[in-house]
Write a structure and sequence with these properties.
By secondary structure, the chain is α+β, with helices and mostly antiparallel strands. The chain contains six helices and seven strands, in the order βαβαβαβαββαβα. The protein is globular and about 40 Å long.
């Protein structure tokens, strides 16, 4: 498992389009649970989609949303799951969160949801954390974004 932190190189955090580009659009291969979130979409459709306790979205739909409107996320956690897992199985567990979650600053770097393969966290619009069980995805971000740092090194 490997993580990266991005806290420089952008005026505001967190936007997903750069991360998706860096990982070669691998987000399409997962289903996503978006939990407690503060974000500011402009369109009515996305405001409604983001108005509940959580949002469950297919990777293709998440990609379309970001391509249509790459709005800023302030506090949120995106948890990516294998496409074979049912939403009902995922929802049996406590929701991951960003605000108040301090274990991302510990070693080894964890993923909050026990069934998740990927986790992306927006931390108060000041940085973005990406953690994946597939190391090559985190390495791709560091290769494509010079401001991305290895999360374990960052935490030392």
């Amino acid at each position: 498992m490997r993580g990266v932190v991005i806290e420089t190189g952008q005026e505001y955090f967190s936007f997903l389009s750069g991360i998706f580009l860096a990982i070669g659009n691998a987000q399409k291969n997962y289903n996503w649970l978006i939990t407690p979130y503060e974000c500011y979409p402009r369109t009515k459709e996305y405001k409604e989609k983001m108005s509940g306790e959580y949002c469950w979205v297919l990777g293709e739909d998440l990609t379309s949303m970001v391509e249509c409107e790459d709005f800023q996320w302030i506090w949120w956690t995106f948890s990516g799951f294998n496409r074979n897992l049912a939403r009902e199985d995922v929802l049996k567990y406590k929701f991951p969160r960003a605000d108040g979650y301090t274990k991302i600053w510990t070693l080894p770097v964890p993923i909050q949801h026990p069934l998740a393969e990927i986790e992306i966290i927006a931390w108060d619009s000041s940085l973005t954390v990406f953690v994946s069980k597939e190391d090559k995805l985190a390495l791709k971000i560091m290769e494509n974004d010079l401001s991305a740092q290895d999360l374990e090194e960052y935490n030392r």
